[in-house]
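[recover] target loaded
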């Protein structure tokens, strides 16, 4: 199993997550919101895939209502804060 590191940036805060490599980089990632709780997810859009398949960079796009049990949701425990 090959792992990809993704950096999710929201303002001046960034988080790192790891996920299993796919054939192409995901154009969007959805993670549980730290602000809105379980009712919303944060949407991050792909902004830099120049280091694919090792590293991807995503920028915050919007918060949307959570769909409980969605296979696209990532576990919040996988998030780790990182300094920019």
């Amino acid at each position: 199993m090959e792992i990809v590191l993704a950096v999710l940036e929201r303002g001046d805060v960034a988080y790192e997550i790891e996920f299993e490599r796919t054939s192409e980089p995901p154009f969007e990632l959805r993670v549980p919101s730290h602000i809105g709780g379980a009712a919303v997810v944060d949407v991050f859009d792909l902004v830099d895939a120049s280091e694919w398949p090792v590293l991807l960079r995503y920028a915050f796009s919007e918060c949307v209502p959570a769909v409980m049990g969605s296979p696209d949701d990532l576990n919040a425990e996988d998030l780790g804060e990182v300094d920019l």
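[recover] notes: The CA atoms of residues 42 and 63 lie 5 Å apart.
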